[in-house]
Amino acid sequence: MLGIYFDEVRKKAPLVHNITNYVTVNDVANILLACGASPIMSDEPEDAEEITAICGGLNINIGTLNKRTISGMYAAGCKANELGHPVLLDPVGAGASTLRTNTAQGLLDMLKLDAVRGNISEIKTLAQGSTSTRGVDADVADAVTEESLESAVAFVKAFAKQVGSIAAVTGAIDLVADENRCFVIRNGRPEMGKITGTGCQLSGMMAAFLTANPEHKLEACAAAVCAMGLAGEIAWSRMQDGDGNSTYRNRIIDAIYHMNGETLDKGARFEIR
Amino acid sequence: MLGIYFDEVRKKAPLVHNITNYVTVNDVANILLACGASPIMSDEPEDAEEITAICGGLNINIGTLNKRTISGMYAAGCKANELGHPVLLDPVGAGASTLRTNTAQGLLDMLKLDAVRGNISEIKTLAQGSTSTRGVDADVADAVTEESLESAVAFVKAFAKQVGSIAAVTGAIDLVADENRCFVIRNGRPEMGKITGTGCQLSGMMAAFLTANPEHKLEACAAAVCAMGLAGEIAWSRMQDGDGNSTYRNRIIDAIYHMNGETLDKGARFEIR
Amino acid sequence: MLGIYFDEVRKKAPLVHNITNYVTVNDVANILLACGASPIMSDEPEDAEEITAICGGLNINIGTLNKRTISGMYAAGCKANELGHPVLLDPVGAGASTLRTNTAQGLLDMLKLDAVRGNISEIKTLAQGSTSTRGVDADVADAVTEESLESAVAFVKAFAKQVGSIAAVTGAIDLVADENRCFVIRNGRPEMGKITGTGCQLSGMMAAFLTANPEHKLEACAAAVCAMGLAGEIAWSRMQDGDGNSTYRNRIIDAIYHMNGETLDKGARFEIR
Which of A198, B108, B110, C126 is deepest in the core (most CB within 10 A)? Predict the structure, then answer.
């Protein structure tokens, strides 16, 4: 069911503008190529608008933000909104520092976002809202488990409604929701947390999937999340004695490179609540 | 015939200053080490001149440029010119935005470059010239194929004459020319386009080959282009079931690590027109 | 004997703030995850203090420094000192340019450092002192070999006393000293020098080991140095025909991923002088 959204990425080969952190940017670029999209990176305010204009979608990731790149994020985001391009926000470290929280919240207030993807802690921070917005009740557990699932699903839906976009909370169980429906996704492996940037890579892919599937945003985001988790499972099955997190990183990108709609449909494990 | 230029790199171990984008910079550093050169990176204007002064050559790549690093590019470029060091320009994204086009054109106007390497679209953009220079006829096809080869060769030679440097247009067929001679190179594999930064890596290697072979600049650039393409072929032959673009990236750098003049001479496929 | 300091890292999973160069930052993040620590990167002055405050230790690496990130280094360093967090300095390129030398020297003068790690050339530069400090005699050979070992050990101890921190000089033989004792470490392989960033990765690990072992700083640093060298040996033993420096990089991180106190104790090769 979700495979068709992956196939659209390979068919349309969307060009995605990424303003992302310098820690994991190479892996983001390679996983975008692996899934059939094309990456371009530009964070200089004077350059970012024009680069966004030639792309189909925008991925904003605030890891290693600085004042110059924050300006680039606003400039690119406004331009993408003006042109109707999908925009995704990855609020890396929201809650960990004032600058990160305020930047994420400011982008959320200023831009029309199509998706926000983070871990539960980052999303809870944003759910509290800014001085100009009223937040939803973020009194939810700090990890999404089978026990906390029901309240977590309700929280993610409420957050999606609050911010008017798809909300994706990724962790041991991944939740991808709009205000009405939530994909509860059980792909992936815990060892993915031992690689830097699997979240950043997923955000890049989600932006590509959104760009290729503008009429089915929730399904597109869910497909990207399932694909990333499934890639983690396939990559793990190819690990040999002595392989560790660096090789695992390569194998995950390799697994996306070989994935298509059919393999995604066979391996995706989700329910809709 | 071209192998001797590779052997010179291993013999002289040139130190190359790279002002390059943060997306692919790690791969550029590792491929420079793989071919026998040493990389150093510095983009702060106050630092760049002195770093250039202790190096033998300079590689300027404008991907992820910003106003600060553009100043660093000019400062380092002027110093390298003053010292007679080879300078290569990789005009990433020229034509895609005003800042990129103007920066590439400005560097081309201001500096004495030894080589310019880009894809056909970037080089066509530069061929149109700036307000202060007159461009050559860039009415050439958007891809170099067997059908468009003759006009493409003429175009690359004319561009080399216009800018007074070696010109390298890389793609399915690679062209490396000065105003009189053009190496038409048929090494490489299409899958290299699914890895981020093979072009950036090649630019770094070309700067190293130029630095080690100052008396044979055209041959040095052609040797680097053949080596990169041949590495793509060798790496592909080592790919196993399930390997994708991330592993391919590693294997290409590994192939350069094991290459020398003799293996290059055996595998290089080119003609001179 | 040193294994227990590695086990402490896995047990405590320290969060380490890294202000480090964009060339090797991804490998630094992955090796920190591999050894059981967690990395976070932030170099914006307005952000760096708060990020340091949520971490346990700080790793400052001046490769690809710029004026903005230098401010971030001072801000984070002062905050870490205030909070009593361990701080490590990797003075990449000290001696190669005025900005690098002055920045490293300034950080050394201003901050209370727990460890300084560099190659012999960088440490000799710092040993000469600034206008406000008096340096030790740096008339020592430019490489640490069996022949120059005695004078090198004396030099590193004197430098450690001068700067009031652990001093680590890494190369063919690694020396890790305080003013009284010097670990002479003979792990590692020469091929590690053909990978970009093994030094940066080691600095990240040393910061993690210091953070997890605040009562045994010298031993913690020596354990990290032995672990990195041993990882280079284990990784080399897993190299296959055609593998080169890019694969070697992955295998070294993989080897750290599988290492623990027991394997470190079996493989560590050092004496104390």
Answer: C126
| Terminal Cα distance for chain A, rounded | 16
CB neighbours of B266 closer than 8 A, spacing ≥ 6? none
CB contact under 8 A, C253 and A242: no
Tokens of A100: 């990160």
Interface residues of chain A, partner chain B, Cβ below 8 Å = 22, 25-27, 29-30, 33-34, 39-44, 46-47, 50-51, 54, 68, 234, 238, 249-258
Query: With left for phi above 0 and alpha for psi between -120 and 50, is residue B112 left, alpha or beta?
Result: beta
Dihedral angle computed from the Cα positions of residues A233, C40, A250 and A235, in that order, rounded to the nearest 10 degrees: -10
- For B4, residues 6+ apart whose C-beta sits below 8 A from its C-beta are B261
Q: Which chains touch C (3 or more CB pairs under 8 A)?
A: A, B
Shortest CA gap A258–chain B (Å): 7
Collapsing DSSP states into helix, strand and coil, what is residue A40? strand
Examine the pLDDT at B134 and tell me if it is beyond 70.
no
A-chain CB neighbours of C252 within 8 Å are 246
Pull the structure tokens for residue A164: 């008017």
Burial pattern B128-142, b for ≥16 Cβ within 10 A else e, equals ebeeeeebbebebee
- CB of C119 within 8 A of CB of C96? no
Per the structure block, which two tokens stand in for A43? 């964070």
**B65-88 burial, b if ≥16 CB within 10 A, otherwise e?**
bbeebbebbbbbbbbbbeeebbbb
Listed range (A134-143, B117-126, C121-130) with the worst mean pLDDT: A134-143
Question: Of the candidates C22, C30, C251, which has its C-beta nearest A195's C-beta?
Answer: C30
What b/e string do you get for C200-209 counting C-beta neighbours within 10 Å, with b at 16 or more?
bbbbbbbbbb
Q: Give the H/E segment covering residue B77.
A: helix B67-83
Structure pTM? 0.97
Token duo for residue C78: 């002062």
Query: For C258, which of A21, A22, A242 is closest by C-beta distance?
Result: A242
Question: Does residue A27 contact residue C26 with C-beta atoms inside 8 Å?
Answer: yes
Q: What is the pLDDT of residues B76-128, one digit of tens each?
A: 999 999 999 999 999 999 999 999 999 999 999 999 999 999 999 999 999 98
Structure tokens at A143: 């990890």
- Cβ neighbourhood burial of C107 (10 Å; 0-12, 13-18, 19+): buried
Distance separating alpha carbons of residues C7 and C227, to the nearest angstrom: 12
Residue B130's SS3 state is coil
CB-based contact C16:C200 (threshold 8 Å): no
Residues from chain C that touch A247, judged by Cβ atoms under 8 A, are 250-251, 254
